[in-house]
Design a protein that fits this description.
Elements lengths: L2 E5 L5 H10 L3 E5 L3 H11 L2 E2 L3 H5 L4 E4 L4 H8 L14 E4 L5 H13 L3 E4 L2 E2 L1 H7 L2 E6 L2 H11 L3 E8 L3 H29 L4 H8 L7 H11 L9 H18 L4 H18 L14
Parallel strand pairs: 1-2, 1-4, 2-3, 4-5, 5-6, 8-9
Antiparallel strand pairs: 7-8
Protein backbone atom coordinates (compact mmCIF):
# COMPACT_ATOMS: atom_id res chain seq x y z
CA UNK A 1 0.00 0.00 0.00
CA UNK A 2 1.22 3.48 -0.85
CA UNK A 3 2.05 6.45 1.32
CA UNK A 4 -0.24 9.20 -0.02
CA UNK A 5 -1.52 12.68 0.70
CA UNK A 6 -4.72 14.37 -0.42
CA UNK A 7 -5.00 18.17 -0.60
CA UNK A 8 -8.48 19.68 -0.71
CA UNK A 9 -11.53 18.09 0.90
CA UNK A 10 -14.44 19.71 -0.92
CA UNK A 11 -17.52 17.89 -2.17
CA UNK A 12 -15.31 15.94 -4.59
CA UNK A 13 -12.04 15.58 -2.71
CA UNK A 14 -13.57 14.42 0.56
CA UNK A 15 -15.04 11.17 -0.82
CA UNK A 16 -12.17 10.64 -3.26
CA UNK A 17 -9.68 10.66 -0.40
CA UNK A 18 -12.01 8.33 1.46
CA UNK A 19 -11.81 5.75 -1.34
CA UNK A 20 -8.01 5.81 -1.15
CA UNK A 21 -8.14 5.17 2.58
CA UNK A 22 -10.74 2.43 2.15
CA UNK A 23 -8.39 0.67 -0.29
CA UNK A 24 -5.78 0.50 2.46
CA UNK A 25 -3.46 3.33 1.47
CA UNK A 26 -1.86 5.46 4.17
CA UNK A 27 -3.46 8.87 3.64
CA UNK A 28 -2.60 12.25 5.18
CA UNK A 29 -5.08 14.99 4.32
CA UNK A 30 -4.89 18.76 4.18
CA UNK A 31 -7.71 21.28 3.86
CA UNK A 32 -7.69 25.06 4.24
CA UNK A 33 -10.50 24.64 6.78
CA UNK A 34 -8.87 22.42 9.36
CA UNK A 35 -12.19 21.31 10.85
CA UNK A 36 -13.05 19.44 7.67
CA UNK A 37 -9.72 17.62 7.78
CA UNK A 38 -10.39 16.62 11.38
CA UNK A 39 -13.84 15.37 10.40
CA UNK A 40 -12.34 13.32 7.56
CA UNK A 41 -9.80 11.62 9.82
CA UNK A 42 -12.48 10.87 12.39
CA UNK A 43 -14.45 9.13 9.65
CA UNK A 44 -11.70 7.47 7.62
CA UNK A 45 -8.64 7.24 9.86
CA UNK A 46 -5.27 8.41 8.62
CA UNK A 47 -4.05 11.79 9.77
CA UNK A 48 -4.31 15.47 8.88
CA UNK A 49 -1.68 18.17 8.47
CA UNK A 50 -1.56 21.93 8.85
CA UNK A 51 0.10 22.64 5.48
CA UNK A 52 0.40 20.94 2.06
CA UNK A 53 4.13 20.48 2.69
CA UNK A 54 3.50 18.71 5.98
CA UNK A 55 0.86 16.46 4.41
CA UNK A 56 3.12 15.57 1.47
CA UNK A 57 6.27 14.91 3.48
CA UNK A 58 7.80 11.69 2.17
CA UNK A 59 4.67 10.80 0.20
CA UNK A 60 4.93 8.62 -2.92
CA UNK A 61 1.68 9.99 -4.33
CA UNK A 62 0.06 13.35 -3.65
CA UNK A 63 -3.45 14.15 -4.86
CA UNK A 64 -5.12 17.54 -5.07
CA UNK A 65 -8.65 18.66 -5.83
CA UNK A 66 -8.81 22.41 -5.28
CA UNK A 67 -10.45 25.40 -6.95
CA UNK A 68 -8.49 26.89 -9.83
CA UNK A 69 -5.04 27.73 -11.23
CA UNK A 70 -4.08 29.95 -8.31
CA UNK A 71 -5.10 27.29 -5.78
CA UNK A 72 -3.15 24.49 -7.42
CA UNK A 73 -0.07 26.70 -7.66
CA UNK A 74 -0.43 27.52 -3.97
CA UNK A 75 -0.50 23.88 -2.82
CA UNK A 76 2.39 22.81 -5.09
CA UNK A 77 4.99 25.55 -5.53
CA UNK A 78 3.70 28.15 -3.07
CA UNK A 79 4.85 28.74 0.48
CA UNK A 80 4.64 25.38 2.28
CA UNK A 81 3.78 23.74 -1.05
CA UNK A 82 3.88 19.98 -1.52
CA UNK A 83 6.70 19.97 -4.08
CA UNK A 84 9.13 20.92 -1.32
CA UNK A 85 8.68 17.73 0.71
CA UNK A 86 7.50 14.91 -1.57
CA UNK A 87 9.66 11.80 -1.87
CA UNK A 88 12.12 11.61 -4.78
CA UNK A 89 10.39 10.60 -8.05
CA UNK A 90 6.98 10.83 -6.35
CA UNK A 91 3.87 11.52 -8.44
CA UNK A 92 1.58 14.51 -7.98
CA UNK A 93 -1.92 13.88 -9.34
CA UNK A 94 -3.97 17.03 -9.87
CA UNK A 95 -7.70 16.31 -10.01
CA UNK A 96 -8.53 20.03 -10.15
CA UNK A 97 -10.21 21.38 -13.28
CA UNK A 98 -7.71 24.04 -14.26
CA UNK A 99 -6.03 25.40 -17.39
CA UNK A 100 -3.77 23.40 -19.66
CA UNK A 101 -1.18 26.16 -19.24
CA UNK A 102 -0.88 25.66 -15.50
CA UNK A 103 -0.70 21.89 -16.01
CA UNK A 104 2.29 22.32 -18.32
CA UNK A 105 3.87 24.84 -15.95
CA UNK A 106 3.60 22.55 -12.94
CA UNK A 107 4.68 19.51 -14.93
CA UNK A 108 7.97 21.29 -15.67
CA UNK A 109 8.29 22.58 -12.10
CA UNK A 110 7.87 19.02 -10.84
CA UNK A 111 10.42 17.64 -13.31
CA UNK A 112 12.91 20.28 -12.18
CA UNK A 113 12.60 18.89 -8.65
CA UNK A 114 12.86 15.23 -9.64
CA UNK A 115 9.10 14.72 -9.33
CA UNK A 116 6.27 13.72 -11.66
CA UNK A 117 3.05 15.62 -12.39
CA UNK A 118 -0.19 14.35 -13.90
CA UNK A 119 -3.09 16.64 -14.73
CA UNK A 120 -6.10 14.43 -14.04
CA UNK A 121 -9.41 16.35 -13.99
CA UNK A 122 -12.50 14.29 -13.30
CA UNK A 123 -16.09 14.09 -14.50
CA UNK A 124 -19.08 12.48 -12.84
CA UNK A 125 -20.04 15.01 -10.20
CA UNK A 126 -20.52 14.55 -6.49
CA UNK A 127 -22.39 11.27 -6.96
CA UNK A 128 -19.55 9.88 -9.05
CA UNK A 129 -17.03 10.86 -6.40
CA UNK A 130 -19.08 9.32 -3.60
CA UNK A 131 -19.64 6.09 -5.55
CA UNK A 132 -16.07 5.82 -6.82
CA UNK A 133 -17.29 5.96 -10.42
CA UNK A 134 -15.56 9.04 -11.79
CA UNK A 135 -14.09 9.41 -15.26
CA UNK A 136 -10.47 10.57 -14.98
CA UNK A 137 -8.70 12.22 -17.94
CA UNK A 138 -4.93 12.31 -17.59
CA UNK A 139 -2.02 14.17 -19.13
CA UNK A 140 1.64 13.58 -18.38
CA UNK A 141 4.34 10.94 -18.79
CA UNK A 142 3.19 7.41 -19.44
CA UNK A 143 5.37 5.79 -16.78
CA UNK A 144 4.10 8.15 -14.06
CA UNK A 145 0.54 7.49 -15.20
CA UNK A 146 1.15 3.75 -15.01
CA UNK A 147 2.34 4.06 -11.42
CA UNK A 148 -0.59 6.27 -10.37
CA UNK A 149 -3.38 4.50 -12.27
CA UNK A 150 -4.07 1.84 -9.60
CA UNK A 151 -4.60 4.56 -7.00
CA UNK A 152 -6.76 6.70 -9.27
CA UNK A 153 -8.85 3.60 -9.92
CA UNK A 154 -9.89 3.71 -6.27
CA UNK A 155 -12.23 6.58 -7.17
CA UNK A 156 -12.35 6.30 -10.96
CA UNK A 157 -14.31 3.80 -13.01
CA UNK A 158 -12.58 4.95 -16.20
CA UNK A 159 -9.02 6.26 -15.95
CA UNK A 160 -7.43 7.14 -19.29
CA UNK A 161 -4.04 8.52 -20.34
CA UNK A 162 -4.81 11.18 -22.96
CA UNK A 163 -1.28 12.33 -23.85
CA UNK A 164 1.35 14.81 -22.75
CA UNK A 165 1.03 17.35 -19.93
CA UNK A 166 -2.10 19.42 -20.41
CA UNK A 167 -3.96 16.78 -22.41
CA UNK A 168 -6.11 15.84 -19.42
CA UNK A 169 -7.23 19.43 -18.93
CA UNK A 170 -7.92 19.87 -22.65
CA UNK A 171 -10.07 16.73 -22.62
CA UNK A 172 -12.01 18.08 -19.64
CA UNK A 173 -12.64 21.26 -21.64
CA UNK A 174 -14.20 19.15 -24.40
CA UNK A 175 -16.37 17.53 -21.72
CA UNK A 176 -17.55 20.86 -20.31
CA UNK A 177 -18.26 22.35 -23.73
CA UNK A 178 -20.46 19.32 -24.49
CA UNK A 179 -22.31 19.64 -21.19
CA UNK A 180 -22.99 23.36 -21.61
CA UNK A 181 -24.79 22.84 -24.90
CA UNK A 182 -26.58 19.71 -23.74
CA UNK A 183 -27.99 21.29 -20.59
CA UNK A 184 -29.21 24.35 -22.45
CA UNK A 185 -30.89 22.18 -25.09
CA UNK A 186 -32.47 20.00 -22.43
CA UNK A 187 -33.67 23.08 -20.54
CA UNK A 188 -35.34 24.49 -23.63
CA UNK A 189 -36.97 21.15 -24.48
CA UNK A 190 -38.36 20.58 -20.98
CA UNK A 191 -39.62 24.15 -20.60
CA UNK A 192 -41.30 23.83 -24.01
CA UNK A 193 -42.95 20.56 -22.99
CA UNK A 194 -44.22 22.01 -19.73
CA UNK A 195 -45.71 25.06 -21.45
CA UNK A 196 -47.32 22.75 -23.98
CA UNK A 197 -49.12 20.98 -21.12
CA UNK A 198 -47.46 17.60 -21.57
CA UNK A 199 -46.96 15.00 -18.84
CA UNK A 200 -43.20 15.44 -18.57
CA UNK A 201 -42.59 12.16 -16.77
CA UNK A 202 -44.12 10.37 -19.76
CA UNK A 203 -42.20 12.58 -22.18
CA UNK A 204 -38.90 11.81 -20.51
CA UNK A 205 -39.74 8.10 -20.45
CA UNK A 206 -40.32 8.13 -24.20
CA UNK A 207 -37.55 10.39 -25.50
CA UNK A 208 -34.87 8.97 -23.21
CA UNK A 209 -35.21 5.72 -25.14
CA UNK A 210 -34.37 7.39 -28.43
CA UNK A 211 -31.75 9.57 -30.07
CA UNK A 212 -32.23 12.43 -27.58
CA UNK A 213 -30.98 10.32 -24.67
CA UNK A 214 -28.07 11.71 -22.64
CA UNK A 215 -26.56 11.45 -19.16
CA UNK A 216 -28.04 14.84 -18.37
CA UNK A 217 -31.52 13.69 -19.37
CA UNK A 218 -31.26 10.45 -17.43
CA UNK A 219 -29.89 12.05 -14.26
CA UNK A 220 -31.31 15.58 -14.28
CA UNK A 221 -34.46 15.56 -16.42
CA UNK A 222 -36.95 14.67 -13.71
CA UNK A 223 -35.40 17.00 -11.16
CA UNK A 224 -35.36 19.89 -13.63
CA UNK A 225 -39.11 19.69 -14.22
CA UNK A 226 -39.60 19.66 -10.43
CA UNK A 227 -37.35 22.69 -9.88
CA UNK A 228 -34.92 20.67 -7.75
CA UNK A 229 -31.40 22.04 -8.05
CA UNK A 230 -29.81 21.53 -4.64
CA UNK A 231 -27.21 18.94 -5.65
CA UNK A 232 -24.52 18.12 -8.18
CA UNK A 233 -22.16 20.52 -9.92
CA UNK A 234 -22.64 24.19 -9.02
CA UNK A 235 -23.28 27.02 -11.49
CA UNK A 236 -20.30 29.01 -10.24
CA UNK A 237 -17.98 26.04 -10.79
CA UNK A 238 -19.25 25.69 -14.35
CA UNK A 239 -18.70 29.41 -14.94
CA UNK A 240 -15.05 28.95 -13.95
CA UNK A 241 -14.70 25.93 -16.23
CA UNK A 242 -16.25 27.72 -19.20
CA UNK A 243 -13.94 30.70 -18.68
CA UNK A 244 -11.03 28.26 -19.01
CA UNK A 245 -12.57 26.82 -22.19
CA UNK A 246 -13.07 30.27 -23.73
CA UNK A 247 -9.51 31.31 -22.91
CA UNK A 248 -8.09 28.16 -24.49
CA UNK A 249 -10.29 28.65 -27.56
CA UNK A 250 -8.93 32.17 -27.95
CA UNK A 251 -5.42 30.69 -28.02
CA UNK A 252 -6.05 27.84 -30.46
CA UNK A 253 -8.48 29.63 -32.77
CA UNK A 254 -11.58 27.56 -31.96
CA UNK A 255 -15.05 29.05 -32.26
CA UNK A 256 -17.42 28.39 -29.35
CA UNK A 257 -20.57 30.43 -30.08
CA UNK A 258 -22.99 28.20 -28.14
CA UNK A 259 -20.60 27.87 -25.21
CA UNK A 260 -20.18 31.64 -25.05
CA UNK A 261 -23.95 32.11 -25.00
CA UNK A 262 -24.51 29.50 -22.30
CA UNK A 263 -21.74 31.09 -20.23
CA UNK A 264 -23.79 34.29 -20.26
CA UNK A 265 -26.86 32.40 -19.07
CA UNK A 266 -24.88 30.90 -16.19
CA UNK A 267 -23.62 34.38 -15.30
CA UNK A 268 -27.23 35.58 -15.16
CA UNK A 269 -28.15 32.76 -12.78
CA UNK A 270 -25.21 33.56 -10.55
CA UNK A 271 -26.10 37.25 -10.45
CA UNK A 272 -29.64 36.27 -9.42
CA UNK A 273 -28.27 34.40 -6.42
CA UNK A 274 -28.32 30.86 -7.83
CA UNK A 275 -24.57 30.33 -8.08
CA UNK A 276 -24.64 27.32 -5.75
CA UNK A 277 -27.47 25.60 -7.64
CA UNK A 278 -26.75 22.64 -9.86
CA UNK A 279 -25.87 23.43 -13.49
CA UNK A 280 -29.25 22.02 -14.57
CA UNK A 281 -30.83 25.17 -13.09
CA UNK A 282 -30.44 26.80 -16.52
CA UNK A 283 -34.11 25.96 -16.94
CA UNK A 284 -34.92 28.65 -14.36
CA UNK A 285 -34.29 31.32 -17.01
CA UNK A 286 -36.97 29.79 -19.27
CA UNK A 287 -39.75 29.55 -16.70
CA UNK A 288 -40.27 33.25 -16.04
Amino acid sequence: MAKAAFLGLGVMGYPMAGHLAAAGHEVVVYNRTAEKAKKWTAQHGGSHAATPAEAAKGAEFVFACVGDDADIRAVTTGTDGAFSTMADNAVFIDNTTASADVARELYQAARDKGLNFIDAPVSGGQAGAENGKLTVMCGGDGDAFGRAEPLMSCYGAKVTHMGDAGAGQLTKMVNQICIAGLVQGLSEALAFGQKAGLDMDKVLGVVSGGAAQSWQMENRGTTMVRDEFDFGFAVDWMRKDLRICMAEAAQNGSELPVTALVAQFYAALSHQGFGRNDTSSLIRLLKR
